[in-house]
Design a protein that fits this description.
Blueprint (H helix, E strand, L loop, with lengths): L4 E2 L4 E3 L5 E4 L12 E4 L3 H14 L3 E5 L5 H10 L3 E5 L7 H9 L6 E4 L7 H12 L4 E6 L5 H11 L3 E10 L18 H13 L4 E6 L3 E6 L17 H8 L2
Parallel strand pairs: 3-4, 5-6, 5-8, 6-7, 8-9
Antiparallel strand pairs: 1-2, 2-3, 9-11, 10-11
Length: 247
């Protein structure tokens, strides 16, 4: 049964005086205590609710927090033992701090700010301290949406997943939309292609890849991986590398 009560197609409540307002990126507003701006549509929220119900993750890491609306939403739906959210902003939003206190999530939700998603050393420090060797059930990368930075994050964090765990890459298709098709950035699509190629050649590393318009879901295989040395580019051969080089 859903914990969300929709007022209309743009806003819903979760109890305890917390309201979420869905907005597109160009319509966002600052979140404040009791009222989150959530950069997702209703169908995206409902998709995540189903995903979290199906996966029942107990340990979650989110890379890319913004005002903390999605972290709060994931915590409310999944009720995990531990959720760690990491962002490049220098301070956690007052809305997220208020949420953790109001919902009594202070011991189960940890927010880290001022962290570059490409800083593998810092990411390992955080994951090591917060999870103390316990593998992750779910990772969500909703940070830069850039290929190089997202690849660095993936190489560092993917090994922390348990066998069968899920790694979600958000908005892989953004550079191909009409709004953003003038961007000169290397599209995140390249990383998604690499993951598909790795799945074909090294299923013990990447056992499955499901690609949707807004998300790519990567399932971890049972190979032993080292966060300090793992590189997805070593998981596919010369023919596949020539395909990636032409992208």
């Amino acid at each position: 049964m859903s914990v969300l009560t929709w007022r209309d197609d743009e806003s819903f409540e979760s109890g305890g005086g917390i309201t979420y307002v869905c907005r597109p990126l160009d319509g966002r507003f600052p979140s404040h205590p009791g009222r989150f701006c959530l950069l997702k549509t209703r169908w995206q929220v409902e998709w995540y609710e189903k995903l979290l119900r199906d996966l029942e993750p107990r340990t979650i890491a989110e890379i890319g927090t913004f005002d903390g609306a999605s972290a709060a939403l994931f915590a409310e739906i999944a009720r995990p033992d531990k959720l760690v959210t990491i962002d490049g902003r220098q301070e956690s939003s007052a809305a997220l701090v208020d949420f953790m206190a109001r919902k009594d999530f202070a011991g189960r939700v940890a927010a880290y700010c001022g962290v570059d998603q490409g800083d593998a050393v810092r990411l390992r420090e955080i994951l090591g301290a917060e999870f103390d060797g316990e593998p992750l059930d779910l990772v969500i990368d909703d940070a830069s949406h850039l290929a190089d930075l997202s690849r660095r994050t993936f190489n560092c964090v993917f090994p922390y997943l348990r066998t069968g765990g899920t790694y979600v890459i958000e908005d892989w298709s953004w550079t191909h939309t009409a709004t953003w098709n003038t961007s000169d950035e290397i599209p995140l699509t390249v990383l998604v292609f690499e993951l598909i190629l790795a799945c074909a050649q090294r299923p013990s590393v990447v056992s499955n890849v499901n690609v949707y318009k807004n998300w790519a879901l990567v399932t971890r295989g049972d190979a032993t991986l080292d966060s300090e040395t793992f590189d997805i580019a070593t998981c596919y051969g010369p023919k596949a590398r020539s395909l990636v080089a032409d992208l």
